[in-house]
Amino acid sequence: MTFRRLLPQEIDCRVATINENGCSLLLYKDARVDQKILDETFGIFNWQRSHQLIGDRLYCTVSVWDEDKKQWISKQDVGVESYTEKEKGQASDSFKRACFNLGIGRELYTAPFIWIGREKVSIGKRNDKFYTNDRFYVSDIGYDDAGNITRLVIYKQRPNEKVYTLGEAVKEPKKITKKEADNLEKIATDNQKEWAYKAYKIASFEDMTDEQYKDFTDRLKKIEAKDATTQS
Prior knowledge:
Number of helices: 5
Radius of gyration: 20 Å
Structural class: alpha+beta
Strand content: 25-35%
Low-confidence stretches: none
Distance between the termini: 41 Å
Largest sheet: 3 strands, antiparallel
Helix content: 25-40%
Number of domains: 3
Mean pLDDT: 91
């Protein structure tokens, strides 16, 4: 049982530590990515999750159907509560950890130490603690045959600029034309725009790459075809 490697747009960046000299970043995936890859790999009816309270800790068991063995294969892990929503945080975290045990996104464990110097990040200080409002995203990532991260490019949003590179230089993704961006502004609904900005980590359609444009327009065509079928 093998899973595909995570795509750049499926990886999020979180500030791990920060001081007056810069900040370090951690790479992580969210539960929606796990659900998407489970659906892709096994189909929506061939995997399941359950939660169990052991003591005061919430555990999640993720089971996938092995067609060759004709049985369910299960992995379990415990969650850590979030700062905001205790039960929901534990449920989501235990699910993500169980998916790591299955092998989804395990390549993130091979990520290098990512340090962004103070010349590339805006740092403030409040109550003797340093902070930043900057947001970062993975623009490109590459792996070797063993699943180790060998190439990594990270950008800072607003302004959109490169702040970290690992491995060989990669060709910058080609942006779509202004005409194509304007066309998307006309045809996409507000909900679709909001989804695109979040999914592709862009501030506007003018930041969209050719690859993202193809993926997004394909999605719009599928929605249009589905609506047409429903109405007929």
